[in-house]
Every structure is written in C-alpha cells, then in structure tokens.
Amino acid sequence: MKTIINDWKLVLILALTLGLAPFTPEPHILLDIRWVLGGAVGMEPMNWFDLILHGTPFILLIRLIFLELKRRFFSVEEEK
Q1: Per-residue buried b or exposed e for 64-74, using 16+ beta carbons within 10 Å of the residue's own CB
Q2: Would the pLDDT of 21 be above 70?
Q3: Contact at 8 Å (CB) between 32 and 74?
Q4: How far is residue 45's CA from residue 77's CA, in Å, rounded to a whole number?
C-alpha cells in the first residue's frame, strides 16, 4: 500500500506549490532560511511555524530521494 508521504507525485507537487509559495518576488522559504542562518533574531512562534509549513515538503522530497538512492545503490543483491 502506497502511503501519502511515499507518493512521488504528491510530494513533488507539494514542494513546488506549498514549499515555494508565494513565488514572487522570491519564494518565502528562502527568506525564512536566510532569517534562521542570520541568527533568527526576532523570529516569533508564527515565523517558526511558517518555516516548518513551507519546509516540510522539501524534507519529504529529500527523504524520498535518499530512500531511492539507497534502494538503487546500496541494496544487497542476491548472488545465485
């Protein structure tokens, strides 16, 4: 049974829509990441929630990529 977090199409659509919204003038996730890398001075709980909301699709996408690479290159192959 395919679960939602393992569905490539859904996770990719989430990353491209929710993860990058709003698209102009630049994706909101980039502003949040810069804010955290700059020391997160002045970040309130709502800003942290916003970072988690926009970042979760990318975390799921990275997880799927890692699992696929692991399956392709590091799986134990049966020899016989």
Answers
A1: beeeeeeeeee
A2: yes
A3: no
A4: 47
